[in-house]
Amino acid sequence: MKSHIYDQAKYYEIAFSFVDPKKQGDLFEQFIKKYGKKKVETVLDLGCGTALQLREMAKRGYKAIGLDASRKMLDYLKRESLVEEVNVETVKADMNNFKLKQKVDFAYIIMMGSISYTKNNKLFLSHLNSVADCLNSGGLYLMENLTINWADPKFWKPQTWTMRRGKIKVKTTYQPIPKNLITQTVIQTIKLEVNDNGKKTEFMDRDDLKIIAPEELKLLVEKNGQFEFIGFFERYSTRLLKKISSDNIVLLRKK
To answer: Where are the domains of the chain?
Structure first.
């Protein structure tokens, strides 16, 4: 399904600009220091979008690669990288089936449970194969905000927030709606209401996504056989998760 929102790179970045790239860069480096088995020189952002975090990692001296299926997102990323005077390599590819020309030392996927776009277990295993193929042994793969909690009523409630940049205001409404508990699928809706210097426009996407349960994910990683499962962590720290939460990080390490 064609995304209407993802074609609006500038508005998309404003909508999710509540993310603090410096704090996330710090967190990445904490995981690298604590769990990595090799020096990290090259980082890969999967489903990178406008890649605020990747641009931050580039500023810190890492070789930065952003992979996305959207040419408009990648073009925006290149323009912003030039403005910020950082070097970011872009790769247009499907995150579930890709190859890189070089190996990387640290890979991550973030933003609103992007890993759910694998849509089914077969695609998730293909995704893991692609990541494993490009990741050096001992390198880490971090998946942020994995949607693993069906039981929390808050998970199903719409979330709304408004962000501003100059005279542009973007109101975002996000909501998952249960579709089929047997296949663990949900309908995800995202709406952007934009006021750009008085001009009002609206963009909406609806996608079917797959929820991967915690033990299911561990079994899929085991079936793939190319990663060590390090654990579920709190979303903004290196502390292991003690109870189920929709805000979490999963960390894998390439064998």
So the answer is: 9-148+212-254, 153-210
Topology (CATH) of 153-210 = N-terminal domain of TfIIb (2.20.25)
Q: Give the pLDDT score at 102.
A: 94
Going by C-alpha positions, the residue among 25, 37, 45, 198 that lies closest to residue 131 is: 45
Contacts of 22 (CB under 8 A, 6+ apart): 56
Is it the case that residue 112 has pLDDT exceeding 80?
A: no
Q: Backbone phi, then psi, for 83, in 5-degree steps?
A: -60, -40
With 0-12 / 13-18 / 19 or more C-beta atoms within 10 angstroms meaning exposed / middle / buried, residue 188 is buried
Q: Are strands 248-254 and 135-144 parallel, antiparallel or unpaired?
A: antiparallel
Other CB atoms closer than 10 Å to residue 108's CB: what's the count? 24
3-state class of 82 per DSSP? Answer: helix
Rounded to whole angstroms, how far apart are CA atoms 57 and 14? 19
Q: Where are the beta strands (DSSP E) in 57-196?
A: 63-68, 88-92, 104-109, 135-144, 159-165, 168-180, 185-196
Model's pTM, two decimal places? Answer: 0.94
Mean pLDDT of 163-169: 97
**Tens-place pLDDT, residues 122-154:** 999 999 999 999 999 999 999 987 776 677 777
What are the pLDDT digits (tens) for 187-204?
989 999 999 999 999 999
CATH level 3 topology of 9-148+212-254: Rossmann fold (3.40.50)
Both tokens of 59, joined, read 């500023």
